[in-house]
Automatic annotation (TrEMBL):
<keyword id="KW-1133">Transmembrane helix</keyword>
<feature type="transmembrane region" description="Helical">
    <location>
        <begin position="328"/>
        <end position="352"/>
    </location>
</feature>
<feature type="transmembrane region" description="Helical">
    <location>
        <begin position="174"/>
        <end position="194"/>
    </location>
</feature>
<feature type="transmembrane region" description="Helical">
    <location>
        <begin position="290"/>
        <end position="308"/>
    </location>
</feature>
<feature type="transmembrane region" description="Helical">
    <location>
        <begin position="110"/>
        <end position="128"/>
    </location>
</feature>
<dbReference type="InterPro" id="IPR006976">
    <property type="entry name" value="VanZ-like"/>
</dbReference>
<dbReference type="Pfam" id="PF04892">
    <property type="entry name" value="VanZ"/>
</dbReference>
<feature type="transmembrane region" description="Helical">
    <location>
        <begin position="6"/>
        <end position="28"/>
    </location>
</feature>
<protein>
    <submittedName>
        <fullName>VanZ-like / RDD family multi-domain protein</fullName>
    </submittedName>
</protein>
<keyword id="KW-0472">Membrane</keyword>
<feature type="domain" description="VanZ-like">
    <location>
        <begin position="48"/>
        <end position="189"/>
    </location>
</feature>
<dbReference type="InterPro" id="IPR053150">
    <property type="entry name" value="Teicoplanin_resist-assoc"/>
</dbReference>
<feature type="transmembrane region" description="Helical">
    <location>
        <begin position="214"/>
        <end position="234"/>
    </location>
</feature>
<keyword id="KW-0812">Transmembrane</keyword>
<feature type="transmembrane region" description="Helical">
    <location>
        <begin position="254"/>
        <end position="278"/>
    </location>
</feature>
<feature type="transmembrane region" description="Helical">
    <location>
        <begin position="40"/>
        <end position="63"/>
    </location>
</feature>
<feature type="transmembrane region" description="Helical">
    <location>
        <begin position="140"/>
        <end position="162"/>
    </location>
</feature>
C-alpha cells in the first residue's frame, strides 16, 4: 500500500507538467468549438487526465534499478485466461463448515491484486459514458484497448527502453480491466440523474460563446502575437537590414492590417477563438478600418509607453543634475500610474462587454462566429 501511495504522489508531481502541455490545445479547441470554457468541463477533463496519469504511473513505476535492468532478457507473458481464479482458490484456506475461513478468499493477495485491477478501470468506463457519451460496445472496446496499451507497455519493457519486460504481460489483466470499464459504465448511471448531462454542459458553453469575454480576447491576442513572432523568424532573411524589433513591427502591421482584408476580419487568433472583426453595422469593415483599429490599439496600449520611456531616458542622459533626475523619475512614476489606470479602465470595460475607444473610432467590433447548436 505504501508503494501505491508513493507512486500516486509521483503522479501528483508530474500532473502540472502534463497540464502545461495539454492546456493550450484544450483552450484552443474549446474556444474554436464553443466560444467559451466552462469551469465544470475543466474539472471533469482535468480530473480525467489526472486519473489516466495515475493509472499510467501505477503500471510503469517503479522502474527497475540499473542492476535489475541489466538482468532483463526476453518478454514474459501469461496467456492462460482466468488463471487468477485458480490462484485465488489455491491461496485461500476455505473450510466449508467454518465461515471465518471464507474471509481468506477476499483477503489473500491474488484476490486483492485483481480487485485493484478491476477498480482501476472503473472510472474509465464512468468517464466514457458520462462525458464522452460512448455506448456500451464502444466502452467495452476502449476499455480493452486501454488495458492492452498498458500490457504492451509492460511487455516491451517500456517501449524497448529495457532489453526485457520488467513487468508481466498478463491476459487476466486484460479481462479484469475490461470488466472494470464495463462496471464503471453501469455504475455511473445513477450519478447521471444528479449531474448535468454533456448536452446541457454544451448548451451552456454555446450560450456563453455568444459573448466576447476578456479572456477570449486575451487568448486570441496570444495566438496572434505568437503567429507574428513565428512569421518574423521565418522571413528574417528578407528583413535582415532591419533590427529584429523593427522587423517584428513590420510583420505586425501586415498581419493585423492587411491579412484581415483578405480573410474578411479573421486572423489566426480570431479563427481559433471563433471571433471576427466586423463593422458596427454588422457588415465587413472598410479596408482602412483595420489600420485604424489596430494602429490605435498597439499605438496607445504598447508604443506610447515605450516612446515616453525613451524620451525620459534621453532627458536623463542629457541632464546630469541629480535634482532633475529625481524630477524626471517622479514624472515617470506618475505617467506609469496614469497608464496603469488607463489599462485598468480598459480591462474593466472589456470585461463588461463595453466598446473600447479604438473600436468606436474605427467603427468595428468583435463578433462571435460560433454556430449555436
Amino acid at each position: 500500500m505504501n508503494q501505491y501511495l508513493i507512486i500516486s504522489f509521483q503522479a501528483v508531481v508530474l500532473f502540472p507538467i502534463v497540464v502545461a502541455v495539454f492546456t493550450l490545445p484544450y483552450i484552443a479547441y474549446n474556444y474554436h468549438k464553443y466560444g467559451s470554457i466552462l469551469s465544470l468541463k475543466v474539472v471533469i477533463v482535468y480530473s480525467f487526465i489526472f486519473y489516466l496519469l495515475c493509472m499510467y504511473c501505477l503500471v510503469v513505476l517503479p522502474l527497475p534499478t540499473p542492476e535489475e535492468a541489466a538482468a532483463l532478457h526476453g518478454r514474459r507473458m501469461q496467456l492462460e485466461p482466468f488463471l487468477f481464479v485458480k490462484d485465488i482458490i489455491k491461496k485461500s484456506d476455505v473450510i466449508p463448515g467454518e465461515p471465518k475461513t471464507w474471509l481468506t478468499v477476499v483477503l489473500n493477495k491474488a484476490f486483492l491484486v485483481n480487485i485493484l485491477n478491476l477498480f482501476l478501470a472503473v472510472p474509465f468506463g464512468m468517464y466514457l459514458r458520462y462525458y464522452f457519451k460512448r455506448s456500451f460496445s464502444q466502452t467495452l472496446i476502449l476499455s480493452f484497448l486501454l488495458s492492452l496499451f498498458f500490457e504492451i507497455t509492460q511487455l516491451t519493457g517500456l517501449y524497448f527502453i529495457y532489453s526485457g519486460s520488467y513487468r508481466l504481460f498478463d491476459v487476466d489483466d486484460l479481462i479484469v480491466n475490461t470488466i472494470g470499464g464495463i462496471f464503471g459504465y453501469i455504475l455511473v448511471r445513477p450519478l447521471m440523474i444528479i449531474l448535468p448531462s454533456r448536452d446541457e454542459l454544451d448548451e451552456v458553453s454555446y450560450k456563453r460563446g455568444r459573448e466576447i469575454s476578456l479572456f477570449r480576447r486575451v487568448i486570441s491576442l496570444f495566438f496572434d502575437i505568437a503567429s507574428v513572432s513565428i512569421i518574423t523568424m521565418l522571413n528574417r532573411p528578407l528583413l535582415q537590414h532591419y533590427p529584429i524589433f523593427r522587423a517584428f513591427e513590420i510583420n505586425l502591421l501586415l498581419y493585423f492590417s492587411i491579412l484581415p482584408i483578405f480573410t474578411k476580419g479573421f486572423t489566426l487568433g480570431s479563427f481559433i477563438t471563433s471571433t471576427a472583426v466586423v463593422s458596427t453595422d454588422g457588415g465587413h469593415p472598410r479596408f482602412f478600418a483595420y489600420f485604424i483599429r489596430y494602429g490605435l490599439f498597439f499605438g496607445v496600449y504598447f508604443y506610447i509607453p515605450l516612446y515616453i520611456r525613451r524620451i525620459l531616458d534621453n532627458f536623463i542622459l542629457i541632464n546630469t543634475d541629480a535634482s532633475k533626475d529625481m524630477g524626471v523619475i517622479t514624472i515617470e512614476i506618475l505617467l506609469y500610474l496614469l497608464y496603469f489606470l488607463f489599462l485598468l479602465v480598459a480591462v474593466i470595460k472589456a470585461a463588461l462587454h463595453r466598446s473600447l475607444f479604438y473600436e468606436r473610432w474605427s467603427k468595428t467590433r468583435i463578433e462571435s462566429t460560433v454556430k449555436v447548436k
